[in-house]
Design a protein that fits this description.
The protein has a single domain, classed as Alpha-Beta Barrel (TIM Barrel). It is about 35% helix and about 15% strand. It is built from 17 helices and 18 strands. Helix 2 links the parallel strand 6 and strand 7. Helix 6 packs across helix 7.
């Protein structure tokens, strides 16, 4: 187990690997933009396609999770998403639990000049998380009829998870830029994901990870779901700041392979959630074909009229007091949550009606279910989005936006 936590065996030299110099061996990896899906010889009516997926005993009709970001999810948004058959995750370390009325802070962030946004957020997020607000937000989710899913970082989970549990949370998410089964620190008590999972009776989803070794360790620790992605998010700058990350198509496929191996060994199937870099219907379809069971949406839902970011979006690492790994971006509000997830679409750029886009793609690929979509043919096709689209790009419509 220690070996899995301290090295990425999936990154060892493999057939077809290349050298970048000396004895240093690397392998080629792929982003979602570099692949495409091949239509099947037998197609399926999109209306016969089943998009449902499960977390533990709980089944969702749509494979969409709203990211636990303050610009994306508040209590009303989480309730609305549950009514649509999706899932919203509330950040228990965000503005919602630091301020009794977070609207003023949200408005300040939305109105800030670009050069002032990060500094403003660093100040706003210095306000401590309040225990009574943690319980109040969870209870509001339950009372509003939402599936009460909440997120916390591993460092805060020892404190926040029991509070959320007592308040009635139904799904726990332990999430950070990178999470391993055990985190060691000379500055304090080590964090054990398995101990946290064993402390509650509700499903605990964990992330983010990108490698087979890290994924297997988290599965063996008891994770009820895995989030995949380091750095592909629209507002994330981790790859530039830290130089760390794996292109999302490869990351999903690696973690999905670990999930499948774990199922062969134990009989337990654990869903994989692609987190980051999912903006349009084609991204959703490719992520699921690579092995994901659902996708986490950040900027795609920050565009919603109901989103608390008011047309802006930022990641959870953006307010970091010492090393921000994100930025605030402007996103064009382009419709309601319902329109973005279930249509009808009035935009030609693929950002609306994600569910029917996925149904259509699955039907074309001959997949009736999410699990069947994992077996469709994938090709390397980095120019597939631009081939024959010169007029769209010159006129800045459709795929040329």
């Amino acid at each position: 187990m220690t070996e899995l936590l301290t090295s990425e065996k999936s990154y060892a030299p493999v057939p077809g690997a290349e050298r970048i110099g000396g004895t240093r061996v690397v392998r080629r990896t792929y982003s979602l933009d570099e692949i495409a899906l091949v239509p099947a010889s037998t197609t399926i009516d999109p209306q016969d396609v089943d998009l449902s997926w499960s977390v533990g005993a709980r089944r969702f009709t749509l494979p969409f999770i709203a990211s636990a970001m303050d610009s994306v999810v508040d209590v009303p948004v989480a309730i609305a998403l549950s009514r649509l058959g999706a899932l919203g995750v509330l950040n228990l370390e965000g503005l919602q639990t630091r301020y009794g009325n977070p609207d003023e802070a949200l408005a300040q962030i939305a109105a800030a000049a670009p050069e002032d946004a990060v500094g403003l957020m660093q100040r706003l997020y210095q306000e401590p998380v309040k225990d009574h607000l943690v319980g109040a937000r969870v209870r509001a989710l339950v009372e509003g009829g939402a599936v009460a899913a909440v997120s916390m970082t591993p460092a805060a989970a020892t404190r926040l998870l029991p509070m959320a549990d007592r308040a009635g949370a139904q799904i726990m998410v332990i999430q950070s830029t990178v999470v391993t089964a055990r985190h060691y620190s000379s500055q304090g008590k080590s964090v054990s994901i398995s101990d946290l999972i064993e402390s509650t009776n509700v499903p605990v989803l964990v992330g983010n990870c990108v490698g087979s070794g890290a994924a297997l360790a988290l599965l063996e620790a008891g994770a009820a779901g895995l989030f995949v992605g380091v750095g592909p998010g629209a507002a994330c700058t981790s790859r530039r700041v830290l130089g760390v990350g794996v292109p999302q198509a490869t990351a999903i496929a690696d973690v999905a392979a670990a999930r499948d191996e774990y199922q062969r060994r134990t009989g337990r199937y654990v869903p994989v959630v692609a987190d980051g870099g999912i903006a349009v219907g084609g991204d959703v379809a490719r992520a699921i074909a690579c092995g994901a069971d659902a996708v986490m949406l950040g900027s795609a839902l920050a565009r919603a009229e109901e989103a608390p970011g008011r047309g802006t979006h930022w990641g959870m690492a953006t307010p970091h007091a010492a090393l921000p790994r994100g930025t605030r971006i402007k996103v064009q509000q382009n419709g309601s949550l319902r329109q973005i997830l279930t249509g009808p679409a009035t935009s030609d750029d693929g950002s609306q009606n994600l569910s029917d886009a996925l149904r259509t793609a699955m039907g074309m690929c001959g997949a009736r279910t999410i699990r069947e979509m994992h077996d469709v043919e994938i090709i390397i096709a980095p120019t597939v989005a631009s081939e024959g689209k010169a007029l769209q790009f010159s006129q800045r419509v459709g795929q040329g936006r």
